[in-house]
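U., I forgot to send this yesterday:
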Amino acid sequence: MIEYSRSTGNCEVTPYLQDNGADLAFEDRMTREATNRDPDVEIVSVIAPSLDDVQRTHSRYFVRMNHARVA
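Result:
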């Protein structure tokens, strides 16, 4: 799951490596979206074999890599 600030370029990546990781990521995303009050923050869940794949397919979230953090 990625939590991304459009204005700052900061992003936080939370990996879900369990067998049911996609379900857990989606549930967490829904919870975070329900409580998020900042319209500038995007919260997305992405299914991919690796973080490298996510960085390649969703590169706009990682443009400012010095501001990216894996939780």
